[in-house]
Amino acid sequence: MSLALAGLLWTGSAGAGETVIYRCTAADGSIALQSMPCPASSHSQVRRLSADYAPPALSLPPAAPTQPATTPPTASAPETPAASSTASGRAKPLPLPALHHCQPRSGTAYYTDRLEETVRCVPMRVTGLDGNPATAAGQACEVQRDRCQSVPEADACHAWGLYLKQSQQRFASAPSRSSSQADTQSAQIAALLAGSHCSQALDQKP
Questions:
Q1: Distance (Å, rounded) from C-alpha 45 to C-alpha 24?
Q2: What pLDDT sits at residue 112?
Q3: How far is it, in rounded angstroms, from Cα 162 to Cα 139?
């Protein structure tokens, strides 16, 4: 018997000494317990309870024991292996990007770490229908890709040193409008070399 039903047992009273419960069974088989008489369409059963009647105690299932909250073990930070660079106060060397040695169709070979610079659109001569360039109605160019090979790791430090010299020479000979860009590239290459393992190798060369 539910708590709602137990409470219902004491809602209807036929007199000071008893309580009347109506059990109503509808045509569809549903059952309702109430303190008022059942409708005429329902089958009715009446039960009278004396004033000293006490509803049976509800037996509830025992509560499940609460498991104590466990705190997962905190992973300790791995010990940092002792390194000569740390002992000397120098930062750990950073890896250098991949470097490529490229050969254009015409001109001098060069180094680059930016493969997007190895593709260029070379302007083509355009003429009008009469063969005169002055009457040409548009422009055209030929896409050219330089042949490039990755620099082996064993030659990386030497190649990066040549790449820095190449950029510095380009800065020295660049026109004023592009000298700032060439100077920025030279500074970026020098910064990469200074923070890499190649810095000591290049410093030891005469």
A1: 7
A2: 94
A3: 37
